[in-house]
Amino acid sequence: MSGADDIASLDFASVTPEEFARIVKGLSTKEINEIAQDATLRARVLKEVFGRMERQFKPDVAGSLDALIRWKVTGQGDTEDAVYETKIANATCTVTEGRSNAEPRVTLVMGDADFLKLVSGNSSPVTMFMMRKVKIAGDVALAAGLTRYFDIPKA
What we know:
Helix 3 (about 30-35) packs across helix 6. The two termini are about 20 Å apart. Strand 2 (about 80-90) and strand 3 form a beta hairpin. By secondary structure, the protein is of the alpha+beta class. The chain has one domain (about 5-150): 2-Layer Sandwich (Nonspecific Lipid-transfer Protein, Chain A), CATH 3.30.1050.10. The chain has a five-stranded mixed beta sheet. The chain is about 45% helix and about 20% strand. The longest helix is centred in the first third of the chain and has 18 residues, at about 40-55.
């Protein structure tokens, strides 16, 4: 069974964040990019990951933070870029698909493999930035500390 088959057969509703982190850790960048070539599967994975952000948000850590974070996950070949926005305000986190007209405090741009590694706790945002695997426009300090606002599992 390939990595794509593993992901395709997942019942995301029953997979814990820790299990998802372990699955991602076990996949190579090449395998993740193969998964991303299947537009339906890619959309399913991204929708699940962003859907979990609201549940894994730590309001006590965010405090009075008010920020719009735009995520652009770049596609390869015929795969289109995916854009999501995370709005943190009043100790809540709201995620929407697509690009709004609002001005984000920070925009993060990365490929599918780097995105999945970041959100599953398998890579550090600072290391990714230093290695130019993620591009950041706007508030770099917010981007560097973004993971502390979410309960991110360690694989």
